[in-house]
């Protein structure tokens, strides 16, 4: 049994009152809170080690470089990538997606080629492909979805052809919590010779990952959603693909030799890491990964599934509440609307009771259009959340509905 009270002690931010009530933090899909070890790692770095990496001849620079590269190894293990050459540090999921759209996309996608995404993509996995397709006169196709929030595999099959150059698909929907069976989608795309990118922003916080088993070509996630700092993320890419791709940004770090006539590029992964990186946050990410590994990702998943089942049952029992997205396989995300109330008002009233949830379109406007709504209220769980907190949310929601729903 996990000792959740003990885990909560690791998170200073959780122990405060908001608007006169103990905070219930259910906005984890937007960003998770940070354990003390992550916060302390940042302070320790700036107080004791701060130096630029990879080029200093002095002791602090060597220490910073060593710690920085330790995170790369920890991220490799987290994803089960075969080599640290395949682990590129970015600003986050958005930058990882843009890097691939720009570098792989611009060099490999030609007029008339096709790119496939899905109905439930975050804007960051739509817009970069739209920009690319517009520039290249390529065609963007979209996998449809059922009313329950599951992608339709048979329809996906119909979209694929030898024209398909790339499929980019979300592993877990941030708005609905749907876990997509992406291995199946990857296998099929590969049969057509297409490359597959996986947006792992919402799967990385919740369960075990294995990029070799998935056999995806690219995988991206953000540190801030897995108990790590903001401004930091990871792009995994298969070595053979990364080697063929042109750099994304040019500058220091990513070069071997520069003359005015010609520049030769650095080896992987540095070819894609131009400029001074986000050193402190990268070092701190290792502590977030350690935190998850120490608990165990199976245990994190089991605890969150338990909360999801409990909360779903409670929420379904409330009159006027409609859960949006009822896929068979979900992470701990409950999106809902209240009949007779705007989602924004529900969120504001919950906040007045100290309950932090998200409202709106969650950066998935096309998904909202598909469902015929303009937004939802979203509660999303993390390892430190409890059934008592779910009870607080449910109790508060019942009162709000009794008082305000028309
Ligand atoms: N994809 C998904 C599914 C997300 O949930 C998010 C963050 N909400 C992103 C991409 C973008 O992540 P970031 O803002 O950290 O770059």
UniProtKB/TrEMBL annotation:
Its recorded reaction(s) are: (sulfur carrier)-H + L-cysteine = (sulfur carrier)-SH + L-alanine
Q: Which ranges carry the Aminotransferase class V domain?
A: 24-392
| Top-level taxon of the source organism | Bacteria
The keyword DNA-binding is assigned to this record: no
Q: What is its EC number?
A: 2.8.1.7
The cofactors it requires, by name, are: pyridoxal 5'-phosphate
Tell me the GO molecular function terms: cysteine desulfurase activity; pyridoxal phosphate binding
UniProt KW Cell division keyword: no
Q: Which InterPro entries match?
A: Aminotrans_V_dom, Aminotrans_V_PyrdxlP_BS, Cys_dSase_SufS, Cysteine_dSase, PyrdxlP-dep_Trfase, PyrdxlP-dep_Trfase_major, PyrdxlP-dep_Trfase_small
Q: Name one GO biological process term.
A: cysteine metabolic process
List the Pfam families hit by this protein, alphabetically: Aminotran_5 (PF00266)
Keywords attached to this entry: Pyridoxal phosphate, Transferase
What is the annotated role of this protein in its UniProt record? Catalyzes the removal of elemental sulfur and selenium atoms from L-cysteine, L-cystine, L-selenocysteine, and L-selenocystine to produce L-alanine.
Family per similarity comment: Belongs to the class-V pyridoxal-phosphate-dependent aminotransferase family. Csd subfamily.
Q: State the name under which the record lists this protein.
A: Cysteine desulfurase
Q: Whose protein is this, by species?
A: Rapidithrix thailandica
Record lineage: Bacteria, Pseudomonadati, Bacteroidota, Cytophagia, Cytophagales
